[in-house]
Amino acid sequence: MTALIVGGDKLGNIPDVLTERGIQEYIHWPGRKKGMRKKSIPTNIDMVIVLVDYIEHNLTEIIKEQSKTMNIPCVFSKRACSDLAMKLDNCKNCKLCKIS
């Protein structure tokens, strides 16, 4: 499973949280600059994770719309590992998610 993480300048221990939940690969976009709005979600992504406390607001809306159009699950979380772990655990029940 591959995730796109948008937001957060540094990920800290977040990769450990992802690995524990079966997300082996990830792509990270810092998400603070205007130029990020022009990017599109890659086609090989299984899930989008938006770190809401470290991202430009307009980019959040763009990512949300793109993930909805592509039918990719999108999780919104704070940059805290505990919050992300809770959101991913809740996402296990989602029919779109493939989290183990």
Automatic annotation (TrEMBL):
InterPro entries: UCP020408. Belongs to the UPF0751 family. This is Dihydroorotate dehydrogenase.
